[in-house]
Model the fold of this input.
Amino acid sequence: MKAKFTIDPAKNPKQIDYAMTGGPTTGKTQLGIYELEGDTVKFCFAAPGKDRPPDFTTKEGSSRTLSVWKREKK
Done:
C-alpha cells in the first residue's frame, strides 16, 4: 500500500485522508480521523469509498479499521 495523506487538525475530531497511490486500492481515497495525545496516536479509517467515521469505534461489518500507535522511548 502507498498513499499520500492530508490532515485537517482544525476539525473535531481531527481528520486524515489517504489518497491511495499504490496497491489494490490505487486511485481511491480512505477517509479517517485521528487523535494525538502525548506519545500515542490513534487512527480510525473507513474502507475506501465509505463515509468518514464520526468516532473511534469499530463493529463487525462496519468496514472500519482502528489502530493505536505508541512511540517507543529509547
In short: Residues 2-70 form one domain. The mean pLDDT is 94. The longest strand covers residues 14-22.
